[in-house]
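Quarterly update from the structural biology core.
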Amino acid sequence: MTTHRQATSTAVLIGALATTRCAGGPDGTPATVESPPELVRTDAGPVRGALRDDHRLFQGIPYAAPPVGALRWRAPQPASLWTEPRDATRPGSPCPQAPTVYSPLGSEDEDCLFLDVVTPRSVDPGRLLPVMVWLHGGGEATGAGSVFDARRLAVGGDVVVVTINFRLGVFGFFGYPGLDGSGAFGLEDQQAALRWVQRNIAAFGGDPGNVTLFGESWGAFAASAQLTSPAAAGLFHRVALQSGFALADYPAGTFYPDLPALPPFWSPLAELQATGEALAAEQGWVEPESEAAVAIERLRALKVADLLPHTARFVAPAFGGDALPESPAEALRAGRFHRVPVLSGATQDEGRLFVALFYELAGAPVTAERYRDLLVEAFGEAAEQVEARYPLEAHGSAALAWAAVITDRVWWRATQEQNRGLAAHTPVFAFEFADRGAPAAVPAPPGFPLGAHHASDVVYLLDFVGEESGLAPEQQRLSQQMIAYWSQFARAGDPNRPDLPPWPRFRGGDAPHVQSLAPGDGGIRGVDVEAAHQLDFWSKL
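Predicted structure, tokenized:
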């Protein structure tokens, strides 16, 4: 088994190969010619990125072979080697996805297993920097690592940031009887990227022995899966989870109108394979009674455009295979996870984004009458108890009341349960992002302030490529503080620094510390999320 020390030594050696030697010293000894800082040698070949005023940027580096043709729905394979410097000044293609109301990205290109690396401009070869690997959100149906600009985090935090693309939806989590790796190809991609980091990141100035895996929404959900995956052991050393939902279940209607109640988003392997088999039969893609190998070969020959419309049926990773032997929800609750420090939290108004997108802006506004119907649909005989706790007059509108129910019941109930479970075994630092004036991810419906909605914390750490953050001066200060907290956590497994407000460790008990993150004087402080989000009520309902 390769140790972290061996991995670091190997990666440093690869970096050293970027230095060339030639004859020419005045005493006849070889002279050393250092490669320019934008040229870095990886184990597959050299890459030439861009040198900017305060950072270096390397884009579109393949970390695995294109998963096309016979490699569709297979574990990621090694990328082909190259000898001449590869242009790394443009991002690689996003993985196949269709545009949505919350993401304009669209792609049918399966050649998408690329990553980007951002470092401070000057990197001391004798001082390797902490590495932060970003897993993007997007509901496992949309998104790409390449849409995030990590310059502020890399420069302000003095860290190396890696953002990755991985297979999504029907391409990342399809299952079929006899298909090895069913339901976990996207997770395997993430692990392949983390192995690339172990082999190569020292050549960019990063420390392969100090890697933080961090993500938001579905990215945090996937990071929780990696916490429990035996195949991910040793590939990262800290985890930061922003609005993850590994333990969440979903009462009826809590995201979309008429959506039935759903368990946590983990699928038994046999169930997912049956879903794939049923889809193939429905669409006439395979002959009835076909042998598995013949059926899978035919499925691999399908056009991307034929598969994409069915991606929503394959957004839940499967457990019961090599990548996830058991449900991560059960593994986390039982304490079966990698012992690494964790930074974990959610936003104050998580549910408002979903109510805005799928109710108010979708032509299905939550009226007072509809609010009561939704409570009955979601909670049955307990609806009156919930309404008594979340009366309309306390929230200003039926839509805001329904959003508060979703925030507390779905997000904070699960977040705090996970924080408590993790903290029984490993250091945890918990937070609530609470800037209710944060830039909005979508247009706010009339009379419906989005507040500190789901994903509103992302722009305080990362920008979107080509967009300004839109942060006011006090928010910029909060962003700087959050970057300092996150990068210090990556550096030491503890976010505390002398120049920042103290952040006590989360410990079990009646009042575990959760750090409120909001702009202005006193905005960073302890907050009782269990009272604010009525978690005692929800735990007993």
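The two ends are 48 Å apart (CA to CA).
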